[in-house]
Amino acid sequence: MIRRATPADVPAILGLIHDLAEYEKAAHEVRTTEEQLRAALFADAPAVFAHVAEEEGDDGEREVVGFALWFLSFSTWRGTHGVYLEDLYVRADRRGGGHGRALLAGLARICVERGYHRLEWSVLDWNEPAIGFYRALGAVPMDEWTVFRLTDEPLRALAGRAS
Predict the structure, then answer these.
(1) Looking at residue 161, what is its pLDDT?
(2) Domain for residue 55, yes or no?
(3) 110: domain CATH number?
(4) I want to staple 90 with a disulfide (CB 3.0 to 4.6 A). Which of 2, 99, 123, 156 is the partner?
(5) Rounded CA separation 13/16 (Å)
(6) Which residue in 23, 84, 89, 134 is the catalytic one?
(7) What is the average per-residue pLDDT within 49-75?
């Protein structure tokens, strides 16, 4: 089952974020707190959204086994919003059950229903299982593009606020 995340899902989503960071060999980079995530996802006018995949656990209770965290982008060439998928993750022991596809299909439906022309995301170049999965859905890599990022001291320096 795929549904919009609720405030009660924040601990599970944060746990999955930590699992994802570990998988991507970047656990040391996660600084997000439950409070930050709750504030971002459930503000009066949120700019970030999340959907969760859940299934019945061994104890008969529903449990979150995956999530998609996304925000709106805008295409100057298309003149419409799009969805940028920041993170998609399904617990390793629940992969292969259709949760990742269902999360992406839910975001695709949002795009189609709202007239958005783009659903896009980044994937690490060594993550062959994910790349194969995305290609099987018909997604194409944007090989001619390179992602750039400013964080921490370089970001503060450019803003004129070096610490």
Answers:
(1) 77
(2) yes
(3) 3.40.630.30
(4) 99
(5) 5
(6) 134
(7) 94
**H or E element that contains 87:** strand 80-90
Active site residue 89: no
How do residues 140-156 score in pLDDT, each as one tens digit? 999 999 999 999 899 99
CA distance 40 to 34: 10
Domain count for the chain, please give it. Answer: 1
The two three-digit tokens of residue 6, written as one number: 């609720």
Position 35 confidence tier, pLDDT thresholds 50, 70, 90: very high
What's residue 56's pLDDT? 86
Report whether 88 contacts 65 (CB < 8 A): no
Domain with 56, as residue range(s), is: 2-121
Token pair listed for 66: 């995956």
Furthest C-alpha separation in the chain: 54
- Provide the CA 162 distance to its chain's centre, in angstroms: 30
